[in-house]
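Researcher: Structure prediction, please.
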Amino acid sequence: MARIDPDKIRNVALLGHSHDGKTSLAEAMLYAGGTVDRLGRPDAGNTTFDFEPEEIKRKISIGTAIAHLTWREHKINLLDTPGFQDFTGDVCGALRASEGALLVVGASTGVIVGTELAWQQLRARNLPTLVVVNKMDKENADYWKTVDAFKEFSPRPVAIQAPIGHEAEFTGVVDLLTRRAYEFDQQGRPKEIPLPGELAAEVESRRSPLVEAAAETDDALLEKYLESGELSDAEITGALAKGVAAGTIVPVLCAAAVKSTGIGTLLDAIVALLPSPKQAAPVEAVNPRTEQAETLTREPAGPLGAIVFKTTADPFVGRISYVKVVSGVLTPGTQLLNAAKDQPERAGTIGFPKGKALEPATEVVAGDIAGISKLQVTATGDTLASRDHPLRLPPIEYPEQTYSAAVSAKNKADEEKVNAALVKLVDEDPTLTLEHEPITKESIVHGMGDVHLEVVLEKMKRKYGVEGMLAVPRVPYQETITSSAKAEKKYKKQSGGAGLYGHCVIDIAPVPRGTGFVWEDKIFGGSIPQNFRPSVERGVRETMEQGVLSGNPLVDIKVRLLDGSTHQVDGKDIAFKLAGAMAMRQAVMDAKPVLLEPIMDVEVFVPERNMGDVISDLNGKRGKIAGMEPSGDHTEKVRAQVPLSSMYRFPIDLRSITQGRGRYTMKFSHYEEVPAHAAQVVIAAYQKSRGGEEEA
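Model: Predicted structure follows.
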């Protein structure tokens, strides 16, 4: 089989609001290209793209799925991405693997929050884009109203098609460039028909903005257009492709995926207007051993460089790494280097993705996409290169996690299995992390939202046979003191034989925040023998770990051992340890102890119209507003410091306030004293739980 020319490849990501028909559109394109022999439907659970049980159950895409088709002698790789924001991590990987995108919009729902968020992702990367107004056959479908809804967007999308018919009577499209009309067969392939007479005047009026947009891409074309008032079809097509590649023109097309109407002309537009991998900008790579930069021109003749943009793992199928070959040629058996980890890998089975399947490949050229099975150390974001020419590509950027939950096993005996399963799931999902909180002793999983974490547990049960539970994490409070105190305690016990005796005097004082625990032995002489003094310290440290108010550790205290006494026979390590613990507890209670809570630096990005409501919400969460500033694109950035205890619900509240348009980042700042009224609630809850334990 002849090697494919990278100029004949199109890598296209599909983005948009959930339920606007991305998967249906992708299925229709596969059907038109002959990759599949039937039209898959998400509501029937029989699509090539949505194959995971969690996707079939919810009837939404949860992960990016990839399949390819051939159209007009071009290979088109389609990357169907999730529309639900909890799964935006997979969108980031798909965008890294694509040179173009389809922004899918529902003809009856129009431009909504998911559309806006997808647009922002595409503009941030300046990715060449076509807008597809889908579901043109639905009730209340309005193509021109949807096109007009983009008028506030920049660059403003421009229609290159007009629909024939309305709602259920939508039967075809008119190419505004050529003035040609098309209807479509059952498979979505176009057939030219006479232009309906009633559309002639509208076609002319709608065509003018298209020609003007094309002319504005080139000074010579603009001059010709101003002089003659017309451009040739070839000039317009070339100018459109140039404008799309530069990100200055976003063409709009129409379709009804479930009827395969508009599919063939959409595929024609992908081939004609979206760039090939060779047309994309060169990539700056780095030799990981010398840190020398190297420019890759996306040619098969270049050194091998491939980025892993998605990973899946299954206990039965094994691990599959999906790669975009940026430069060079990848073949089965290639001796590879994972440049991110500087470890060897070997390319085993390589195939072209078709949903969950891999079609065997003899080679994968620069610009193409493939799956590699059973790589040992490679994770999403890593670079694969040849061992004799190491290269590291820029990493994929992912959003910060915004939702956290404590995770535990439903069956306590399965705790280790749950943690082991989560480690494997974290390995395939860059937006999922797992940590052990040392203060609360909880396992905390961080993700992009509540649905994201629910799906993680469902996958864990299906793939690894263990069930987990999610809960609101406990806040890792700390305790400290605000004044000095002195305490003397004696532990004495006699029970027939040898007794126990330990006696110590200590004083304590606060030290600057962050100092930790300071121990000083100030005994002069032998009131406490040298061998028993570490036992006093152990007792003090145990009290520090357990706290006295809320079961949380004490911090930033200096403890001095001043005096004590022993007994020649009954003096024991355990007695001095207990005396130290008792003295420490008494001293802390006399030193005005307080509760400390973690304070987070929070940055919230919200539409201007929602800023007041968000500030009010943060104030209600005991937040302190640090500043506000414009963030571009009609968005404001609000900076605040907020207690962690108030942030666990914030993702849900922010989504409600902004209808999903808001986002935020959060990082630890410092610990701060909890206001008395709030501290009493925490302390009372702890005392109540201790009472319950003691009764039990």
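Model: The chain has five domains: 6-207+248-279, 283-386, 403-471, 479-591, 597-678.
Researcher: Thanks, that helps.
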